[in-house]
Amino acid sequence: VVKAEDGVNINTDAQSADIALSEPGSIVIREKDAITLNSLSTINGDITATSADTMTVKRVEANSASKATLTSTGASIVQAAGVTTPAVTASSTFLSASSGIGSQTTSSTSPLILQTNTLKATSTSGDIVLAQNGPLALDEVTTSGNINLAITDGGLTGASGKPNLTGNQVKVTAEGDVSINTNAGSLLGITTTGNI
Q1: In this structure, are residues 100 and 73 in contact, taking their beta carbons and an 8 Å threshold?
Q2: What is the pLDDT of residues 110-153, one digit of tens each?
Q3: Number of helices (H) and strands (E), helices first, in the chain?
Q4: Please, is 154 exposed, middle or buried when counting C-beta atoms within 10 Å of its C-beta (0-12, 13-18, 19+)?
Q5: HSE-CB of 138 using CA atoms within 13 angstroms
Q6: CA 28 to CA 41: how far, in whole Å?
Q7: Which residues is 183 bridged to in the sheet?
Q8: Which of 85, 77, 46 is nearest to 64 (CA)?
Q9: What's the sign of the alpha-carbon dihedral 14, 95, 9, 6?
Q10: Residue 83 exposed, middle or buried by CB count within 10 Å (0-12, 13-18, 19+)
Q11: Within the chain, what is the greatest distance between any pair of CA atoms?
Q12: What is the pLDDT of residues 152-172, one digit of tens each?
């Protein structure tokens, strides 16, 4: 557990991390292996976490005007079991993994839950399974696997001039208007209460 005032920038070899800032500042963690992010929080500052193995996320909460960047260079990024609230809260969220973000089987999904304004997520392989609370401006979500994106209480708007969803099979559900560009092997469906 680390409590600091104006910023944390550390290399770790730990099973879990709890870091809270009481004054404006950023958090930067570089983990040697796998890690569980129990709680990383800032008042006014970005959060950047990198791990060489699986990154399990319970709570990452940046200021409403700040950025969260999570990277697993050798494995996946997943939501901690039993956590049903947003694991990542930030103005902008950037996710990068080697073998997937969130998880799903043929009978169930375990998404990484977000509450963010803008999103970019990429994975070299594996599925990307995300749930978003509120409207989402999407830069891109890219993987060689499948994409499952569910949005509650809002719609989805993709950046213009490029594919916003690139994957093998793509599925989107939303509660608002959806305007995106796709590059998918197959489009399993776009379901929304708004317009497409």
Answers
A1: no
A2: 999 999 999 999 999 999 999 999 999 999 999 999 999 999 99
A3: 0, 21
A4: middle
A5: 31
A6: 11
A7: 166
A8: 46
A9: negative
A10: middle
A11: 49
A12: 999 999 998 888 999 999 999
